[in-house]
Specification:
Double Stranded RNA Binding Domain; 4-stranded mixed β-sheet; globular; single chain; 31% strand
């Protein structure tokens, strides 16, 4: 596990850094793939905030906790991450594993705002690169919830077509599927 610790408005402490590493080691049992963890420890007046982002093959999980003690904040955020990973692992077990296929990559292009000439029609300012993992609709909903996003682009494992799942204003989900023909 590769762990990066960033201190904001607080002195860098080896004790806090090793405490965070020890705590994050226990979540490694939920994911087999190589894991990258980013820990942000912030102090704002009397608030101690611990934020953790874990990225592994196919998933990204984020959590944040705020207390009056940095060690308590780390304990709480690691507990939250562990609950999310446990729920993710249980949902994966419920689903039948899809046949592995190559992940598709989407090219990323970022245009500098200064280089855009004033025009009447809208212009794409930023686009993002991400891997499209083949998954079922249920897995896509779960991944969208784990990432706290309002929509997710994914490849349907059964049809191998690119779909979009999105959260509706009424709390339900919508699915956009391409129609062949």
């Amino acid at each position: 596990m590769q762990i990066t610790t960033t201190f904001r408005h607080i002195e860098s402490s080896d004790a806090l850094k090793s405490y965070a590493q020890d705590k994050l080691e226990r979540v490694q049992k939920y994911i087999d793939e190589p894991i990258v963890a980013q820990v942000f420890l912030t102090v704002e007046k009397i608030r101690h905030i611990a934020e953790v982002t874990i990225t592994a093959k196919g998933i990204t999980i984020k959590a944040s906790e705020e207390t009056n003690d940095m060690y308590a904040a780390l304990d709480a955020v690691v507990d939250k991450i562990e609950r999310q990973l446990r729920r993710y692992k249980e949902r994966i077990k419920e689903h039948k594993p899809a046949a592995e296929s190559d992940e598709r990559k989407v090219k990323k292009t970022v245009l500098a705002a200064e280089s855009i000439e004033p025009r009447q029609e809208p212009v794409i300012i930023k686009s993002k690169t991400f891997s499209i993992k083949p998954m079922s609709v249920d897995e896509a909903v779960m991944q969208m919830d784990l990432l706290h996003k309002d929509f997710l682009v994914f490849t349907d494992a059964s049809t191998e077509s690119i779909n979009v799942i999105y959260r509706r204003k009424d709390g339900n989900y919508g699915l956009i599927e391409p129609q062949k023909g």
